[in-house]
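Dear support,

I submitted the protein below through the web form. The confirmation email said the job was done, but the results page showed an empty box. After a refresh the structure appeared. I'm attaching both so you can tell me whether what I see now is the final result or a partial one.
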Amino acid sequence: MEEETKIFQKDGVEAYVKYQVGHENEPFAPGAAFPFVKAVEVVNEQLRQLYPDSDELFDIVLVTNNHAQVGVRLINSINHYGK
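What the results page shows now:
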């Protein structure tokens, strides 16, 4: 979110939200945690195969300090990348 951060820092929250809403159907590029999250998903899939009656061992929770309006773009990005 480098470009988005620059917009927020230069032009403020209103411009930032306007940009995010205008780009809500464009997924965010994978960030630093992306490979880790994918690895956790693989572990969960393997655990499900080994223990089909148990719950997943790991839950992936997204926490952000971004404006609530950015949530649509985050959800669209998650759906784009498969989970």
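Response: this is the final, complete result; the empty box was a page-load delay. The two ends are 20 Å apart (CA to CA).
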